[in-house]
Amino acid sequence: MWDKDEEVSLTQKLEEIRTSLTSIRRMIKEAKKEKGTDDFLGNIVLKLQDLHCTEDNWYKLEPRTETYPDRGQCHLNLKFIHKARDETLSAGRSAYTNYCGILQQFVQAYISKEQSSAPWKGALCGEAQTLLELYATQNDLSPFLQDLAKWVAYSKLYQSLEVDSSVLLQQLTSIEYHWHQQELPYQQKQELGDSLHGFLQYGLCLVAKYRDIFPPTPTATPKLHTLLRILVQICKTQAFQKLNPAHFELHDEINDAIQTGTEEWFTIKKGLHQPMTKDLKEIGSALFKLITEVKEDIKHNKDVWNRVFVSAVQVDVFTAVYQKFDCLLTNEVKQTLSLMDGQMEQNLAKSLFPIYLSLQTIHKDKAFLQRRGFLQLSSFHESFREALPYWLNQAFSTTQDRVERAVQVDQLQPLQIGAVPIKHSSSAVDSVACIQPIYQLWDQLSWPDPEEAFMLMVKTTEDVCKIVVNYSHLLKQRVRVLSENSDHGSAINMLCVVVNDLEHMRSVLEKLPVQLKWEGLRERTQNVIGQSQFENTLHSQKHQALSTLSREIKSALATLGRKLYTDIEIHVRSMSTRRRIPSKSTEDAAAPLMRYLEQELEYMNENLVQENFNSLLTPLWENSVKILHQMFNQHSQQEGLMVFSQRLQYTLQCLEQCFHAEGNGLSLQKLHSDEYQTLKALLTHHSMTSQQLIEKFFRRKITEQKNYSGEKYGAVTFLATYRISDQRLRVDVLNALKLLPMDSNGFSDPFVHLCLEPHHIFPEVEPRCTQIKRCDLNPLFDETFEFLVSLDQCLAPGACLVITVLDHDTLMTDDFEGEAFLALEDVSGISTKEEEGQSLQSDTSSGQKRLPLMHPKPNEDSILKLLESRKSEREAQAFVKKRRQREKQSQEAVKS
User: Residue ranges of the C2 domain (predicted)?
Assistant: First the structure.
């Protein structure tokens, strides 16, 4: 738009200056312009394709520059007028053909005008729809022909524009509906047949390239599903079956398209990842990239595309693709790895490990195959045998280096995580973490061959055991270095940490069968590896390593316990000092030792894990028992042995309670060892008073009498009853049998001596004797004796009736025929506690006893030896003298 200017002279402009000085600048500017030049007001640019038949709008004037942006608006009223009719559509063509042409132009125009990214869903503007309907009505086109025209047009547009697949399905349904209702002309039949067949071929081409055209996204996969439905619907229509007599199996065609497309896709990817040089590592890297692409594609086929194909056309695309890749990948891997034969080294082997893992992942997907047959990938591991030792050595050396570094920086101090203290140090935790990659390597390998897998397990187990054992050696070296400049307390503390670290590693070895899944391997190899070979190999490796760790732990615990052993011995020796015997009670004498032990054990319990603390307790207990035993043996011949034994016995009881700790320490089974039982019996024996020892002596004799069999020295028969009412013990000596001849004439002059023992229980009871029977080896006495004794005396420990048979000699000491011991608690009336008033006659038969006579064995009784050592006790010495006299007279002494 322009502003028209008239031609004005300079003289006229100067005249205007006189009248209007305010616009001088404008006037000078206008005066300089050429004569007849118009001013530019603005312009409007309109695209014809955007205009409708009629337009009546205001349009904004656009400036040339930004100096004066606001140029105003212009009102335009536009109309399109046809001066002549276009007859190109109808010239020599049928109405059906013209209808198809009009339809295509309307659809293309509508889609172009919409400019939407969404697919066209078959809608047209109202005017276009009206024109099509009018044209079909005027030219008498049937609905069948209209639907046919739409199918032909839409199926062609589908190949070039974004057309919603549901539009095609709708037209196919309409064609199927009209097929039997109206006969199509020959030309339209041919057109329909060609269109259906052509779309099928086009659809199969799309299926072959489904990876690129229909990526595994939520928006693309529904399009693939609809396309497959269209292909299925085409094959099901009667029109297709009638117009295409050749056999067409859609399932097989789609399978072939998938196979072909997969091979083409693999070839393209292989070309993209082709190595630039002949370097073996670069070749391996290219192979890894290709396998990664294949692995991802298999995953998409399994998780996404397979559902689409199965639901639409019942084609298992995952199985088809997997089997194709199985062949392609196997050949590619073999060709590539054959280039590396004889050239394997550590770095090259390391680059092959990701390839192995990727192939293994692909191979594991075979579990999802619907049809399983022979797979070439089943033996993929064979190509990696040369690299396998390098992988194992790499894992071992890396772990070994990490463990060494962990020990080098370890200060052997307990870890503190939060409020809960951990009793082992950082190197133990780090070492366990360092071993994990070896476990992971075994899991990652999952070596298919059972026999080779067993050998790999042997190697893996050996490596773990070596690392653990080497860790124990490194730890010992580390504690030596740190202990050089440390005080004794710090050294002990570090030693506790070392023991805990070793125990922690021992627990790792104990879990080795679980970590490496030995049981699963055992099931896999049961047909090729015998049970004995399996256990002898793997379990022996573990046991050897555990034995080494146990020795190291015991050595460290022995070092910890060595100071304790010395201090315990010092405290025990202090209890044996003679001058302290009368001045201290047993409890006071043992108190220093118990306080020391409680303090030390509490410290050890705080600084050692429970397993190590228990391991320390066991040798400490055994050594404590040994020290007590040694102390006893060293002082067994000194005075005051009884008091010292009582102290040792009390100390042993306190130690037992301390080490048992109410069930929290050592078990009673471990505490009551053979040496403990021996020491306890010995201390109990020597802690007794002389009277207790005498009672024990008679209890032994009573037991010996009950167990004695035979009548080598003869026997004595008697009746013994007790009447509670008047506290009388009645003894009827009946006879003696089979006595030994003591006189030169081959006979004896026997009599029976009755005595109640021990003497301190029956101090006022006098012994009794029967009459002497001359020259008789089977004398009949038939004499009765009564003893006035209480029931409590009869039930006292060791209370017994000693029956001694002697041979009377006038000028010499009476000869000893034998003796028998009857426990008073077994006497009728005492054992049954008969009530007062019970008939004595009724007890006669039940109280009769026949006891064999015994002879004592000289110098074999420990009680007599102990009593004999107590020189200051007159009662003990008198008893020993009496018993020694019997031993001298014993026939057992003659035989010995």
Answer: 712-840
